[in-house]
Amino acid sequence: MLDHDYNVVASRYLRTQGSPIRSIKNLLRELGADVPHGVDIRGAGTTGSARRLAGVIVGADIVKNEIIAHAVAAGQFHPQARTVLEIGGQDSKIIILRDGIPVDFAMNTVCAAGTGSFLDHQATRLSIPIEEFGSLALKARSRANIAGRCTVFAESDMIHKAQLGIATEDIVAGLCDAIVRNYMNTVAKGKEILPEILFQGGVAANVGVRDAFERSLEQAVVVPEHFLVMGAIGAAILAAEAAAEQETGFGGFETADVRFETRAFECAGCPNQCEVVETLREGAVIDRYGDRCGKWSEL
After folding, report:
1. pLDDT (tens digit, 9 = 90+) per residue, 77-99?
2. Tens digit of pLDDT for each residue in 16-44?
């Protein structure tokens, strides 16, 4: 939630836990409880991998991809930024900015290695709270070399290093290095990384990964104050700009009590056999997508 000057009034960071609809509704309840009496919501925006679903549920005025959203937020709070490193729970990306304009980007959405979920999984294996993961890495005396191109290989490497008696903090530091190495060799390969460098997304909370980035880049890496929700902030700014030209479609915080569901079916109308996904509100279809010809999505 932003005010007219784009100051963050309230924010929440929730895990989807496999159910984005439930998480969106919980988010609306929690944010709604923080809204001062009499405040008028002028616009709403969504972004991220489930941006279309979220947009339909909340009644978003704009639905934008993460690249644009993160770039807008970076430009608002750090106008001198020229590189954005972003690692979230499900994917990672790099955005190259010049004079506040995104001129290049790359994303990795095909593998969990090097993302927040990868770190979560390894922290669980090591019986370390994810909140302590980064600070433990900073205590390493000798950084273990962990394979980071694949989650399976990383786990095998971790087990082997532990069997050799290598200290846990050295293994954790090695995992942080592996994430950065994976990122630099895939997402950031061939990109011109210039300062000011911002590190955004949930993994930016991990000081061990930030330290590993600074070691690899040999440059300072800045973690913005609102690093967890920079994408959401960018979407909110874009929604505010859209609000100047149209009435908001935001359904209100009471949308948290409305029943939503999604279902999918395969269209047999042609050899494409498209999987069509539809969203229902209180049993009525309000959105469809996935068909190539528009037969189903044109409600």
Report:
1. 999 999 999 988 778 899 999 99
2. 888 899 999 999 999 999 888 888 899 99
Q: How far apart are CA 222 and CA 202, in angstroms?
A: 14
What distances in angstroms separate CA 228 from CA 5, 88, 140, 232, 282, one per listed residue?
20, 9, 26, 9, 32
Separation of alpha carbons 65 and 235, rounded Å: 9
Angle at 272 between CA 269 and CA 276, to 5 degrees: 70
Selection from 171, 138, 133 nearest residue 155 by Cα = 171
- Residue written as token pair 């109308």: 269
Question: What is the distance between the alpha carbons of residues 134 and 155, in angstroms, rounded to a whole number?
Answer: 18
- The SS3 call for residue 170 is helix
Q: Where are the domains of the chain?
A: 1-77+226-258, 79-223, 259-299
Residue 297 has a pLDDT of 85
CB atoms within 10 A of CB 242: 17
Q: Which CATH class is domain 79-223?
A: alpha beta
Yes or no: say if 226 and 77 are a contact pair by the CB < 8 Å rule.
Answer: yes
Pairing of strands 62-63, 83-87: unpaired
Fold of 1-77+226-258: Nucleotidyltransferase; domain 5 (3.30.420)
